[in-house]
Amino acid sequence: MNNTKKPTGQMMDLTSGNIKKQLVLFSIPIFLGTLLQQLYNVIDAVVAGRLVNDSALSAIGVSVPIYLLFVSIILGFAIGITILLAQFFGAKQFEQIKRLIATMSIFLLALGLMMAFGGAVLAKPLLQLTKTPDELLEIACIYLRVVFLGIPFSILYNLLGAIMRSYGETKLPLYALVLSSVINLILNVIFVKNGGGVVGIAVSTIIAQAISSIYLLIQLQKKFPMTIPKKEDWGFDKGLFALSLKICMPIIIQQLAVFMGMLIVQGFINQLGNPNIGGMTAASRIEAFILLPVQAFGNSLSIFAGQNIGANEMERMKRGTRFGVVLSIVVIITLSAALLLGGKQILGLIIGNNKAMILSGYSYFKVCLWFYPVNAIIYGLGGVLSGAGDTLIAGIYSLASIMVKMLVTILFIGKLGLLAIAIASCCGWCVSSVIVASRYKSNRWQTKSVIKTI
């Protein structure tokens, strides 16, 4: 029997009210949170490079991709859980919400412990597999083993953040991330100045994650008590777990495909010489920031779609989709124009006065910036499809994009150099957008609603 009582916290019910105002207000905290996560990832590298030494910076550099491979699995589960919870919230099925939270908490706790200790054991073999230089192997291994021990806190933060975002609450996860970033920076400096080295940097990350997780847990208990499982609610619901895996696995595959594709393409870039490596490194950092707004709109549309589909407000969901995609296109066109006019100056802020690297990075931008608006369709419509429960399409278009990028890169890297990487990226985006747009127009995703399968 469904509990129709509403939680006492302040939530954003996206199933009624002004669509445009709701989507904009809902997207801003998500955008700021994603932006802060990008900056968060830079803090450790800056502290290591400035306050320790170049070896510490390089050790973190070779360790982070391995760590992110594990984190991508966590993020896949977090996105999937958000979709399920948003649909349950839209349908006001609070008993289902409590059972899902209880089930996935049990599973993710076990997964977190396995990842923490498994990652610590596999740290050295994984570093050797990625051909880490011998002079960096031990220090990188120490750093990786310590940060792996903090994975349970990363899981807790992402789970609590998923719960809150599905209710329309995006500010509290942002506040938690701000708190975590400040604590991480302060502890980094304190530990490193007292001889902590890379171990101090890793421990700072764990402590910051733990504090932000505890903050979110306290806020959840305080503001959303009606959705917290009580003693009698705790149990493992096999049906909900199977449904969760069905939703989450394509997203996890998508996350892993994107990550592995980036590693493979980076291998080709590494063959083009230092000016191209440096230019492309700077360009990719700027590109990540350029695409942040469309990613934020996509995440917002995913939750918006989930709630409205759960409430059977299909026409409202479609109106919100049109607005979100159009606004996203306008924003990305504006940013692309700024990049066209000031791309060299922006690259110079990162690279300095190295003209060869700046020209290399700008040669990539000159091609790609014309295709950045395509990403508004990918993230916007892709977010809606995921929010509807049609997550398999996420794995399909991601794998198709990666395969196209790899094929174009292999065929033309020898003749065109870095230009081949740019063309490959644009081709991959175009293929993804066609797949996503075709799926959305087909309306077959409307049968994927979680509510209709229970």
From TrEMBL:
CDD domains: MATE_yoeA_like
Its membrane topology: Multi-pass membrane protein
GO CC aspect terms: plasma membrane
Localization per Swiss-Prot or TrEMBL: Cell membrane
Family annotation (Pfam families): MatE
TM stretches of this protein: 64-88, 100-122, 142-160, 172-192, 198-218, 239-269, 289-311, 323-343, 363-385, 392-413, 419-438
Annotated keywords: Antiport, Cell membrane, Ion transport, Membrane, Transmembrane, Transmembrane helix, Transport
GO biological process assignments: monoatomic ion transport
Gene Ontology MF terms: antiporter activity; xenobiotic transmembrane transporter activity
The protein's role, per its UniProt record: Multidrug efflux pump.
Family of the protein in this entry: Belongs to the multi antimicrobial extrusion (MATE) (TC 2.A.66.1) family.
Protein name in UniProt: Probable multidrug resistance protein NorM
Lineage per the UniProt record: Bacteria, Bacillati, Bacillota, Clostridia, Lachnospirales
